[in-house]
Each structure stands twice: as structure tokens, then as C-alpha cells.
Amino acid sequence: MDKQNIHGQTLEAWIERHPALERIIRAEEVVWLNPKYRSFNDYKASLSLSLEDIKEAAARFRRFQPLIATLFPETADDDGLIESSIIQIPKMQSDLSKHYGVDLPGKLWVKADHELPIAGSIKARGGIYEVLKFAEHLALEHGLLQTSDDYSLLAGAGPCALFQQYGIMVGSTGNLGLSIGIMSAKLGFNVDVHMSADAKEWKKETLRSVGATVVQHTDDFSGAVAEGRKAAEADSHVYFVDDEWSRDLFMGYAVAALRIKKQLETARIQVDEAHPLFVYLPCGVGGGPGGVTFGLKQVFEDAVHCFFAEPTESPAMFLGLLTGMHEKVSVGDFGLSNHTVADGLAVGRPSGAVGKIIEKMVSGMYTVRDEHLYQLLRQLMDAEEMYLEPSALAGFPGPYNLIGTAAGKEYLKQQGLDEEKFANATHLLWGTGGSMVPDDVRQADDQIARKK
Ligand SMILES: *Cc1c(COP(=O)(O)O)cnc(C)c1O
């Protein structure tokens, strides 16, 4: 790092403007409140996407359900719905309260996206949605489909022959590649997944086994995306899924909010300003947590409070929001390595498009050290017999950051969340991935976790 000139300013000048930077660049755990956070109605009208767009995406998912149920029999019981449950984790709540030495009022839940069918991670929302939308577009354009049809006809020889003429390409740290790769290959597309250097071996093997082509990069995530984009631009029959800015990915994630509303109602969990919902989301490039937050804000407005979590070595969205420079800043600019056990979050440069949409929606950010992720993994396995991949644990310190740090307490005060309201809170930790992790990798994670 050139200490004397980071985007035209000295490091000292940066720290003076944003004091949180001092600890961020030392890779310490930091809790930060977003000074641009606003009440939803202050900016709702200025958003370029709306609740109607989310409903349109949800309707598209519904049209595809008969096809999904046909192609992926594990979803047949749910009629091809790709959704996960919400699970209350009272033992983990009491263990964490002991561990952090502070009692958490309210109830702690996990959104079990690690159990999402087909891809086993939050990417089964956005990634699959984008592939389906492209397939629908092609089939409609070629007169093989009408939106009123039963979409299971897309599993037939005609549509498959059409899809075989097209390629789909994506750059990924792993899970997006899995979701795009599995869905695309199943429909008949030729699919190339450009993997960053951090991508886990088992993810590459799984992709090869379903017939996807894995292109290995020595570069990090942004490099893999740039290479993929370049390769796709050279060929008009190749569709590139752009994780750094894809409206379709974003909308696929946002649909989660409509589903959660129903799940909370079914579980008789009240959400309003006196019964706040806190949501803690692990963040990589930002599309997953950003899309979910966008949806939640549309549905619950100021009753929902969303916090994003990143590894201490990869606080990409954090730096983007803090400096206001979005995609123009990378963690390397501030001397951070972008090396973390949380491979799904190993992103050095945030999505600028997502950062700009969520700038006023995100309540705050915090960072988590790798050792802390392993400790949480061990606690979750012991308390609830639940395995998540390390990335998916990043959200877990969130509720305790609220009650256990000056910044957290300040947030509750600013929002008028007194003890009574806070006691009515529901805390939802987004479990972003893990069910497809092979046993030997889980056991290795478990062993590392137990040595820490
Ligand atoms: C991709 C991913 C995230 C974050 O999503 P982004 O869209 O990259 O911000 C979180 N957890 C896991 C396990 C992931 O694979």
C-alpha cells in the first residue's frame, strides 16, 4: 500500500475523515452505523426498482415451478418451489449469550438458505432466477413457449436443442458458479464457470460432474469476473451473468422477502415498529444481501433493520459505503489481503450498483475475524447440530454487536428502540450456505474449529 496516496489522499487524511478506518485497516473487528441510513419513505419514490418488480420476479418463479419439480425431483414435494425454512435456535441463543456475557432478549432464528434445494446456498435464489429468465426469453422468442403454458414442456427435446446453441458464463468465488452451473447444464446450455483462486476444490468437482466447464483463474474474484465478461463479449451466443451488476440476480434474491413475510405470519411472529425484525446478512459483492434487504424494506419498511457482515480481511462493501466510493475502492487499496476462510465473502471490490441502491437501507456493517467464524461454527454444531459453511456464520455476532457495543446501543437509541420494543424483537441470521459441502470438508472444518 502506498501510505501517502490512497485515491489522492494520505492515509492520515482518510482516517481523520472516517475514524473507523483506523481499525478496519488493522483487520480488527469493527461495528459501524451507516450515517446515510434513512426512513424508507424518505427515498422510496426515488428507487428505480419497486415492489412490483419483485412481484414480477415471484410470478416468473411460479411459472417455472412445474419445470423445476420435473428436473429436480427433490423439489417435487414443494411443487418446484425453491425455498428454505426459518428455524429458531434457542440453544445457540443461550450459548452465545453466555459466550458474549450479555443476555439477548427477543428470539433468535436462522433463515436456512443453506438448505435451499439445487444449489445449497443463497445463490439458488438469484443465480437460478437469472438462468430461468434467460431460458424463458429464448423460448418465447423462438416461439417454443407462451407464458400461459405449463413450463415443464421446456424439459423437452425442442427447447433443449435450442438451449444447446447458447452458452452461459459466470465468474464466481464458488457458490454462484454452482447455482448457475447446475441449472444451466440441466436445461442444456453450455456453461463455463470462471473460478477465482479462492474457490474450493469440491465446488469445482461438483460443477465438472454436472457437465459444466470450470475455468480456473490465479486471480481473485474481480479478475475472474472481468475475464468471464471479456470472453462473453466476443460471442453473441454467450450470455454473461454479471455478479457485479445484474438486475436479474438482484430481483431473484429480493423475492425472499415476500416468502419470509408469509413464513413469519405462519410462525405467528409479529413484525411492526414495536416488534422489530433484525436481519444479519453475510456480504460478498453485495447482490445477495442487497437484494434481500431491498425486498425486506419494500415489505416491512422501517420495522426491519438490516446489517451486513464481512470478514476483517475483505470488508469490500464496508469500504464502498464508508468512503462513498463504491466499486472504485478495493480492500487492497487499504492494505488488506482479501484472504479469508469465508470463501463466499472473499471479494475485494463491492458492486457499485448494489451499493448505490442500498446506501440508505443498510443500518450498519460489521466485520468478523476468521477465528471467530470457526468458533461460531463449533458452537452452532454443538448447540444445534447445524452445519453452515464458514461464510454463512459471519452474520451471527450481529445481535450481540447491537447490545454489546457502543455503536449498537447508539443505533437502538437513535431508532427509539427501548427495552420493551427490543424485548419483542426477532433476530434473523441469514444462513447463506452449507448443505452441499461434502462430509470430508465438513470434518476438516470441524477439526480446525475445535483446535481454535
Ligand atoms: C455469495 C455468498 C454470500 C454473499 O452474497 P454476495 O452476493 O456475494 O454479497 C454470502 N454467503 C455465501 C455462502 C455466499 O456464497
UniProtKB/TrEMBL annotation:
Catalytic activities: D-serine = pyruvate + NH4(+)
Cofactor: pyridoxal 5'-phosphate
Pfam families, per database record: PALP (PF00291)
EC supergroup of this enzyme: lyase
UniProt keyword list: Lyase, Pyridoxal phosphate
Top-level lineage group: Bacteria
GO terms under biological process: D-serine catabolic process; isoleucine biosynthetic process
PTM annotation (N6-(pyridoxal phosphate)lysine): residues: 123
EC number, as in UniProt: 4.3.1.18
SUPFAM superfamilies per record: Tryptophan synthase beta subunit-like PLP-dependent enzymes
Database matches in InterPro entries: D_Ser_am_lyase (IPR011780), Ser/Thr_Dehydratase (IPR050147), TrpB-like_PALP (IPR001926), TrpB-like_PALP_sf (IPR036052)
Gene Ontology MF term list: D-serine ammonia-lyase activity; hydro-lyase activity; pyridoxal phosphate binding
Residue ranges of every copy of the Tryptophan synthase beta chain-like PALP domain listed in the record: 95-398
NCBIfam families: D_Ser_am_lyase, PRK02991.1
Family according to the record: Belongs to the serine/threonine dehydratase family. DsdA subfamily.
Listed name of the protein: Probable D-serine dehydratase
Species assigned in the record: Salicibibacter cibarius
Gene: dsdA
